[in-house]
Amino acid sequence: MDCLGVSSAKSLRALSALLSSQQDEEEEDDLCSQDVKACARLGPGHIGPLPKNEKQVSTANTKKNSKDIWCEEEVAEGSQYDDLTDPRPQPEYEIILKQSVGTEDLFLGLSRKDPSSMCCEAMLVKIKLPDTKAKEVVLDVKEKFLDLRTPKYKLGLHLPDPVHKNESKAQFFSEREELEVTLLMKRPMDFINMQ
């Protein structure tokens, strides 16, 4: 009987007294809980200076009257291209990060560039497209999504970093049957990492 740690009637009475005193404290806490509930509604968004318009803070926490499960801002970019019924296979691809390095970087170390991915300026996506001609390729680049369509292949690629979609370049090498897409990356800390 000692396996539970309660060996006598005296221990049972002490345990009972302990539990009953906790119930009394809970009843006292219910009286004070009205003030606590008002503070419990505050979250991390309430830290800092108060906004000029109080309605801006309350709209983030209120539910919309519609029956939508999610809003458009929550849906990942490029998800409209996902088609599970499309039988075309996904081609092989490879993502390579690139950075511009000069002799002053390589030999003298004058800039703060290092071999890490944070110092890379561009992303090279190599896509193998066997039995495909350049005129059959349809390519659409978004900020965080690359969509490639051919009669034989389809590729919907969520990019690891945002890119400048208007500054991307694509080149098709017919001898290798490979498409190379160079995307200039856009990251919030580039002004620090690229100096």
In short:
The chain is an alpha+beta fold. It folds into two domains: 51 residues, no CATH class; 113 residues, Immunoglobulin-like (Sandwich). Helices cover 26% and strands 20% of the residues.
Q: Would you mind describing this structure in some detail?
A:
The strands form 2 sheets. Strands 1-2-7-6 form a 4-stranded antiparallel beta sheet, with no helix packed on it. Strands 3-4-5 form a 3-stranded antiparallel beta sheet, with no helix packed on it. The chain has 2 domains: about 10-60, no CATH class; about 80-195, Immunoglobulin-like, CATH 2.60.40. It has helices at about 10-40, 55-60, 105-110, 190-195, and strands at about 95-100, 120-130, 140, 145-150, 155-160, 170-175, 180-185. The chain is built from 4 helices and 7 strands; from the N terminus they run H-H-E-H-E-E-E-E-E-E-H. The chain has about 200 residues and is α+β, with helices and mostly antiparallel strands.
Cα gyration radius (Å): 30 Å
Sheet with the most strands?
4 strands, antiparallel
Mean pLDDT: 74
Number of domains: 2
Main sheet: strand order: 1-2-7-6
Q: Count up the helices.
A: 4
At CATH level 2, the architecture of the largest domain is Sandwich
In CATH terms, what is the fold-level topology of the largest domain?
A: Immunoglobulin-like
Low-confidence stretches: 54-62
What would the principal axes of the Cα set say about the shape?
elongated
| N-to-C series of helices and strands | HHEHEEEEEEH
